[in-house]
Amino acid sequence: MRTRLNEALKSAMKQKEAARLSTLRLITAAIKDRDIAKRGEGDDAEVGDDEILAILGKMVKQRQESARIYEEGGRLELAEKELGEITVIEEFLPRQLSDDEVAAAVEKAVGAVGADSIRDMGRVMGELKAHYTGQMDFGRVGAMVKARLG
Q: How far apart are CA 23 and CA 19, in angstroms?
C-alpha cells in the first residue's frame, strides 16, 4: 500500500497534477502521524495495510461530511474540492460491497462467531473488521448487526 501511494505521489509530481498531489500528501501525512503515534505507544513497527485502509476510510468520511456542510452553506467550490479528494482517496480503497454483499457478510460473521444475542455484537463486528476493512461502512453495518441480533 505504501509503495502504491509513493508511486502515485511521484507520478502526480511528474504530471504536475496539483490537486491530486495535494490529496496524496494529505494521505501520506495522516499515515506518518499514525506511525509516530504508534512509536509513542512503544511499538517501533509501521502501521500495516489494514490500518492504512482504516485511515483512508476515515478520511473519506471526513470529506463526505465536509462536502455536505459546504453544499448546505452554498459553498459549492469547496464541496467540489472535497469530492475531488474523495475520488483520489478511493483509488486506494478496495471496492465497496453492495448492500446484498454486506448483508451476506453479516450473516457469515454471525455464523462464524456463533452469535445469538446482542451481547455478541462486538465479536461479530471484530470478525467483519478482520475481513472487510475498507470495504464497508461500519457505522451502517453496526445498525444491521444490531437489528440482526436484537
A: 6
Question: What residues make up the domain containing 35?
Answer: 2-90
At how many degrees (to 10) do helices 18-40 and 2-15 cross?
150
What's the N-to-C CA distance of the chain in angstroms?
38
Other C-beta atoms closer than 10 Å to the C-beta of 118 total 14
SS3 97: coil
Query: What CATH number corresponds to the domain at position 78?
Result: 1.10.1510.10
- Could you tell me which residues come within 8 angstroms of residue 52 by beta carbon, excluding any fewer than 6 positions away? 1, 2, 31
Q: Are 115 and 82 contained in the same domain?
A: no
Residues in the chain where the model's pLDDT stays below 50: none
pTM: 0.77
